[in-house]
Prior knowledge:
This protein is of the alpha/beta class. It folds into two domains: 3-159, Rossmann fold (3-Layer(aba) Sandwich); 169-260, ProC C-terminal domain-like (ProC C-terminal domain-like fold). It has eleven helices and eight strands. An eight-stranded mixed β-sheet has the order 3-2-1-4-5-6-7-8, with helices on both faces. The protein starts with a strand and ends with a helix. Keywords: Amino-acid biosynthesis, Cytoplasm, NADP, Oxidoreductase, Proline biosynthesis.
Amino acid sequence: MTISCIGTGAMGGAIMRAVCKKFDKNQIKVTDKNAEMGKKFAKENGCTFVETNKEALAAKYIFLAVKPQFLGDVFDEIKDAIGAESVVISMAAGVKIEKLQSYAPNARFVRMMPNVCAQIGEAMTAITCKDDITEQELSHVKEILGAAGKVEEVPEKLMDCVTAVSGSGPAFVFMFIEALADAAVRCGMPRAQAYTYAAQTVYGSAGMVLQSGTHPAVLKDMVCSPAGTTIEGVAALEKNNFRNAVIEAVTAANSRSVALGK
């Protein structure tokens, strides 16, 4: 499979770094408007840097790691040069396939939403497409993205929700880890040790949810002994509207994703 990526910033770079580890580097091309950054990325990961966006179109699977506000300029340059056999995979948050097709009517698109955890091969990525993408092509896209973590196909109507939950979610989790570590320091633990304990606790807890298939509320109840320490902490979280704060954060991120797509 020939693969390319326009943009090697935080998200595009994370995805392509994972892809370069599992696919033939000689078949992978990248480009970036910041040529120095793009060349550095290519050198570090063993793929090929090309100078222009049009050169990156010489691939079957073309990843578009461009922020929504810059899509118009990029498509003005490449829309007439996208091959009929190519599949363009867009990472632009909130931008629907219908909008992408308005930029390049003859192109075929897959829309994706990864997250920053692709940097360690643990991304949660959602993809969606129209009927013009074949089953084999969609399978190949899943295979490519599988290099960076878990991949699921969802209806496009869920993509704003995906953006808010798994796209923005890592930032919310990082805030929780930071707060948990701050609390540990407040209670006397050295800071470096506090970050390890907080992060490993979140990592292990997430693993229990995924591996056991048990409802999170049931797992929570398993930890809460009668008149124990944990239920006191849970009561404090409830008193301070912890659940509602999380729900409001995700709802706000979802609303912003919807706005970006208009």
